[in-house]
Amino acid sequence: MPATDLQLVVPTNADGASILGIARNIELFEPGDIDTIQELWAEFTAKGDAASWYHFVAARRDGQVLGFACYGQRPLTQGTYDLYWIAVDKNHHRQGIGEVLLDEAEKQVKARGGRLLIAETAGKLAFEPTRRFYLRSGYQLEARIRDFYSPGDDLVVFTKRL
Ligand SMILES: CC(C)(COP(=O)(O)OP(=O)(O)OC[C@H]1O[C@@H](n2cnc3c(N)ncnc32)[C@H](O)[C@@H]1OP(=O)(O)O)[C@@H](O)C(=O)NCCC(=O)NCCS
After folding, report:
1. Does 32 reside within a domain?
2. What is the Å distance from ligand 1's center to 73 Cα?
3. Domain count of the chain?
4. pTM, whole model, 2 decimals?
5. Rounded CA gap, 104 and 97, in Å?
6. Closest atom of ligand 1 to CA, residue 1
7. Could you read off the pLDDT of 11-39 as tens digits, one per residue?
8. Of all protein residues, whose CA lies closest to atom 33 belonging to ligand 1?
9. Which of 66, 102, 103, 122 would you label with 60, given CA atoms 20 to 30 Å apart?
10. Domain holding 98: CATH number?
11. Mean pLDDT of 46-52
12. Does the residue 117 lie in any domain?
């Protein structure tokens, strides 16, 4: 069930610590992932939502950030967007927050002229819940590149036509 008591906001500088804290607490994320999220966040806050290539959306409840998504247009495409990151506070999983965030990211992509959203994830067992989340959210398993991240760790590409 999607959570109905959330506030969806364009996050500001003040939300940075919460967003990065949520990311750091996700056991699936590796130090390199956190560095990348930090870089995208830095560009987003430095340039602002209108000028930034990357866009963030955050979900708040009672003033507390419980999750975020980050997306941006894929360079050299017309209307293809990447969902770079989506993460929900690990103490609030399975409460419908991810669903609400993903839905909002899709709406924003569409409003910006996007027609195709790509979510890349890993093929290893630990990402099975993430893959279930995308499948359940109407994404199609479009491609798999074997041994992409490392030997035995595939890249799995999900897509959704908006
Ligand atoms: C993936 C993630 C964002 C989902 O957020 P969430 O708020 O827990 O997901 P929701 O509660 O909205 O789940 C929606 C549906 O997805 C599926 N789903 C979500 N988590 C699942 C899990 N752990 N196992 C099986 N199915 C799952 C279910 O069908 C669920 O509906 P249901 O609870 O009514 O059965 C969250 O688990 C997360 O932060 N994971 C770690 C980070 C990550 O993998 N991000 C994606 C790559 S960047």
Report:
1. yes
2. 24
3. 1
4. 0.96
5. 11
6. 34
7. 999 999 999 999 999 999 999 999 999 99
8. 94
9. 122
10. 3.40.630.30
11. 96
12. yes
